[in-house]
Amino acid sequence: MSGRRVLLVRGNREFLLKPGETLESDLGVLELPEDVETGTTVETHLGEEYEVRRLRGPDLFDHLERTGAPMMPRDIGLVIGHTGVASDDRVLDAGTGTGVLAAYLGRLGVDVTTYERNAEFADVARENMELAGVSDNIDVRTGDLTEELDDLEETFDVVTLDTGDAAAVVEHAPELLEPGGFVATYTPFVESSRDCVEAAREAGLSEIETLETIQRQMDFDERGSRPSTAGVGHTGYLTFARFIPQLE
After folding, report:
1. What average pLDDT is seen over the chain?
2. In the predicted model, what is the mean pLDDT of residues 194-201?
3. Is the pTM of this model over 0.85?
């Protein structure tokens, strides 16, 4: 397992452990073997079993240390689907936070340079990248991207922004993006989305669109099937735009 943490599952209990580490609980002491394999079971000294699972994206969302409200998996899916970001692409990100988006992208083989203004949050994000096993291709930088734009010496395939001043970066998208590249902004308020749309238009970007992300669960019982009445699952607004240079 190359020293990476695995998920130990028993019912609704879940623990993260590295091979060779010890878990002590009311179910007994468990010494996780160095050569543990996912898909197997391990036992405590009392004979209580745990299933060994490989960490996947949804597990990371549940277990990364949080420094605020992370981007939801459904929003991350829209970012990936609408930008087509893939292995060996380069992404410039701002508003790292917990690092969930960066971790998902890193697990796709994407190289991410991400900026976080809060130094403590940046330290937590670096630890989370270690947990996700993507620290080799995720560069977490402490700082404000809007103040670092002039010092960036490369261009990127995708720019992702989860900051209050995202529009200020969108203005510079033509200088930051490879031809055909995308910028994606995640904003909690529609006014911020409008600012991003206007900045994209002024920057000459194409294929500009804003989506509100809403998701409802379905309820199935003996009476029938219908959308859940628990509430509308609104999370935020995603704005996408593309840099397509005009031929002269």
Report:
1. 92
2. 98
3. yes
Helix or strand run (H / E) with residue 130:
helix 119-132
Q: Quick check: 160 and 79 in contact, CB under 8 A?
A: yes
43: helix, strand or coil: strand
198 vs 200: CA distance, rounded Å: 5
Q: What is the pLDDT of residue 230?
A: 77
Neighbouring-strand partners of residue 25: 28
Which letter, b or e, does each residue of 212-229 get, where b requires 16 or more Cβ atoms within 10 Å of its Cβ? Answer: ebeeeeeeeeeeeeeeee
Q: What is the DSSP string of 93-112?
A: EE--TT-HHHHHHHHTT-EE
Instruction: Please give the Cα distance from 8 to 13 (Å, whole number).
Output: 8
pLDDT tens for 156-167 read 999 999 999 999
> What DSSP assignment string belongs to 149-216?
GGG--S-EEEEEE-STTHHHHHTTHHHHEEEEEEEEEEESSHHHHHHHHHHHHHTT-EEEEEEEEEE-
For the chain, give the percent of residues with pLDDT over 70: 97
Instruction: Give the model's confidence band at 56: pLDDT under 50 very low, under 70 low, under 90 confident, else very high.
Output: confident
Q: What gap in Å lies between CA 232 and CA 172, rounded to an integer? A: 35
Q: In the predicted model, is pLDDT for residue 1 greater than 60? A: no
Q: Find out whether 243 and 205 touch, Cβ atoms under 8 Å.
A: yes
Structural domains in the chain? 6-54 (3.10.330.20), 59-242 (3.40.50.150)
Mapped onto helix, strand or coil, the DSSP state of residue 131 is helix
- What residues pair up with 236 in beta bridges, in sequence order? 213
Locate 15 and state its tokens.
Answer: 């623990």
